[in-house]
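pasting for ref
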Amino acid sequence: MTEHELRKILSANLKRYRNYHKFSQAELAEKLDISIPFLSDVENGRKWISPLTLVKFAAALKIEPYELFKPKDSLSPDVATVLSKWSDEVADAVTQTLDNIRGHYLSQGDIPPKK
């Protein structure tokens, strides 16, 4: 694998996981305490990140650092499916359904309300 290929995988995975978590570049940059232009450069393969920044990315995206270097076709089927197929509408429908279920149980006093 060449450096160019590795950068391409890293940048694609950063974008994919950022979008999965519905972070804008500005939101993720703020969480990581990096600039938006730097994040853009990393996502476009123009810059590398330090090991410390790699760990921060992984923590913010709720993954292990090595997962940022895995080619898309080697991601676990569940992650690959969720990242590539779940549209905003499906996510909203699932959220609405879970809220409805929670509301039903709240009305019966079975569970405490969200904080």
